[in-house]
Design goal:
Blueprint lengths: L4 H8 L24 H19 L25 E2 L11 E5 L3 H4 L3 H12 L11 H11 L8 E5 L6 H6 L3 H17 L5 H7 L6 H5 L7 H28 L9 H6 L3 E2 L8
């Protein structure tokens, strides 16, 4: 069975950290350099999962709960699925979503539902909205001040991505790249006063850095995005280092375990079965 790296992360969040078991995994990796508490905990939970899997220990999971509709995103649902085929287009696609403008949220569920229906009817296959007249219509119809409502995009691929390219590296190569990124993080604040200003936000989660306040200077936003990418790449490298160190095979997850965790069979992969 195949699942995306995003959904693998969702699985590993369903167990507790075993600090003693993973005490040797991050011996030579400084997780405190720029990672938030949540980012560090995610890596430690994943390491616990990989280690227990390698040792053949029974792992206690809590099922992935159905996502509650908070009214803040265009699509709020549990899309966790597993695949039969590594070439499945849904496995290798990008997950795209949008934050719903606060002006719409404040008008209640009926308005949120109508906004969702309208926007979904105009979204292209690549997750963009190209009809500018429709954008103007939304602004007038819903009283939206900022039409660049935040677009969320996550790489839903375990094949065509930064993560995939480093999956093929050896442990020594991974460690070398981790050391290189940690060095890039350490010299970041010395490049300019603006770099130092962004570096002061290093313990923000990567996604929060990418959505830095709209009234910030464009150069500052660009640097925040650059630093967020450093963090994201570091997390991916450490995750895969931990996976490889424990010889974890992501493709061999058992179907029954995935079903018990509320994963669904991919409708594309299983349509003829």
């Amino acid at each position: 069975m195949y699942i995306t790296n995003f959904n693998l992360n969702r699985i590993t969040k369903r167990i507790d950290i075993d600090e003693q078991l993973i005490s040797d995994v991050f011996n030579e990796i400084d997780l405190n350099s720029c990672l938030s508490l949540e980012e560090k905990e995610d890596l430690k939970i994943a390491a616990t999962f990989f280690k227990k899997s390698a040792l053949g220990e029974k792992i206690q999971f809590h099922p992935i709960e159905q996502i509650k509709d908070t009214g803040t995103l265009l699509n709020e649902s549990n899309n966790a699925a597993f695949h039969l085929n590594a070439d499945c287009p849904r496995l290798n696609s990008k997950w795209v979503n949008f934050y719903i403008p606060v002006e719409v949220q404040n008008k209640g569920q009926a308005t949120i539902d109508r906004f969702r229906r309208l926007v979904r009817s105009k979204i292209n296959d690549d997750g963009t909205i190209s009809d500018q007249s429709f954008i103007i219509f939304l602004k007038v119809e819903f009283g939206i001040g900022d039409l660049h409502f935040g677009r969320l995009e996550k790489d839903n691929s375990s094949v065509v991505s930064f993560s995939d390219s480093i999956e093929r590296l050896s442990l020594d190569e991974l460690k070398s790249q981790i050391d290189h990124l940690l060095e890039q993080v350490s010299i970041f604040p010395s490049k300019s006063e603006l770099h130092k200003k962004i570096y002061a936000l290093r313990y923000w989660d990567s996604y929060k850095l990418k959505r830095i306040e709209k009234n910030r200077d464009p150069v500052e936003k660009e640097l925040a995005n650059e630093f967020a990418n450093l963090k994201s790449h570091l997390i991916a490298l450490v995750m895969i280092f931990s996976k490889k160190a424990n010889n974890f095979d992501q493709e061999n997850l058992e179907e029954q375990i995935l079903l018990e965790l509320n994963f669904k069979k991919c409708s594309e992969c299983f349509k003829n079965i």
